[in-house]
Specification:
Aldehyde Dehydrogenase, Chain A, domain 1, alpha/beta, 356 residues, 2 domains, single chain, Aldehyde Dehydrogenase, Chain A, domain 2, 13 helices, 40% helix, globular, 5-stranded parallel sheet
Length: 356
């Protein structure tokens, strides 16, 4: 396959997936629909039985994000800096991708990079997300049958591999380093995302921030887990603006986490704790807040805060803010909408795969 063939196949995949995300109508005369539409729709509706965090809305959100990225112009623009090297690649490498399971199909971007770079993909799935991506791969192979020789999923030991991309916790990263350190590798650890508020945000800004906090129940590394607010900041407008997200507490898994953390903090007589019955706000200097909890910290000088965030960037996936005084920010509401070149942990996956 040429790179153009591979791109064309993924564009067709994106067009197909749009039907499930609310971005497009069901295509009546479509051979892929005859093969897959009903079965994939049933999978989307039932996958929560395997993982209670994967509600139908969250799965459709994830599919929508993937479908939006598989736009021909976006793909061509993204790949333009790698095209010469990809075309010159003499032989496909077998790249093992060990995936997390925190949000639906979180490993799709790695699969996309491996396949578009002309390499072979061997996926090792998390038990929390073992159903969706293989089905999407099945659709991709129906679009371009040559991909059948380039895609494999395995539950067993990884053998005959040339490189490794692994995503997990700080603890699993040590395991990955031990077993796969001899191969060229990308090993990703825990990261969290933060929001920096100035106190001048509109209710609409804060409503969009709610999306960054609550989408996927806050499980993604791009979900905001901590706020930095100016000293003396009042949280009333924030709580008012995010009230529409109260439905999250009706999910049993989220509700149980919220109740548990609330009990633990109240037993500790935590005076800084704020509560609106579905989100706890707790003053805390660290980044990684539990489910149902959002840490916050006051700042006095935004320039000093900006320097701190840059110094601690190894712990941060993205920064959500509208402030021009903070570097490398993402607009409110777009934390979970990364661009194709927004590589996890800031490591250029395509360059690692031989594209740069």
């Amino acid at each position: 396959m040429t790179l153009d063939n591979r791109v064309k196949a993924f564009v067709s995949l994106g067009d197909f997936l749009k039907q499930y995300s609310g971005q497009g109508e069901k295509q009546a005369d479509n051979s892929l629909n005859n093969l897959f539409y009903n079965d994939f729709n049933e999978l989307i509706q039932s996958v929560h039985y395997n993982n209670g965090w994967f509600t139908e809305d969250n799965v459709r959100n994830a599919i929508g994000a993937i479908a939006s990225s598989l736009n021909q112009d976006l793909l061509i623009s993204w790949l333009s800096k790698y095209r010469k090297t990809i075309s010159a690649t003499p032989q496909a490498k077998n790249v093992a991708v060990i995936m997390a399971g925190n949000i639906p199909m979180v490993g799709f971007h790695d699969m996309l990079c491996v396949l578009l770079s002309g390499n072979k993909f061997t996926g090792k799935l998390s038990s929390d997300d073992r159903l969706l991506l293989p089905y999407v791969a099945k659709i991709l192979i129906a679009i371009e049958p040559k991909f059948a020789n380039y895609i494999e999923f395995t539950e067993g030991q990884l053998k005959n591999i040339d490189a490794v991309i692994a995503t997990g916790s700080n603890n699993s990263a040590r395991y990955f380093e031990y077993y796969f350190g001899k191969y060229p590798h990308i090993i990703r650890k825990n990261r969290n995302s933060v929001a920096v508020l100035s106190g001048m945000e509109s209710k609409e800004d804060l409503k969009l921030l709610g999306k960054d906090i609550f989408q996927y129940f806050g499980l993604g590394c791009r979900n905001v887990s901590k706020l930095f607010v100016p000293r003396g900041y009042k949280f009333d407008t924030l709580y008012e603006s995010i009230f529409e997200y109260q439905y999250v507490v009706n999910n049993n898994k989220y509700g149980n986490n919220y109740d548990y953390n609330r009990t633990v903090y109240l037993m500790g007589n935590n005076e800084s704790l704020l509560d609106n019955n579905f989100l706890l706000l707790k003053e805390d200097p660290t980044y990684s807040s539990p489910i149902g909890v959002l840490f916050y910290e006051f700042y006095d000088d935004i320039h000093i805060l900006n320097q701190r965030l840059q110094n601690e960037k190894e712990q941060i996936q993205c920064i959500v803010s509208t402030s021009s005084k903070i570097d490398y920010v993402v607009p409110f509401g777009e934390g979970q909408s990364p661009k194709l070149d927004d590589y996890a942990d800031g490591v250029d996956t395509m360059e690692f795969l031989g594209g740069g």
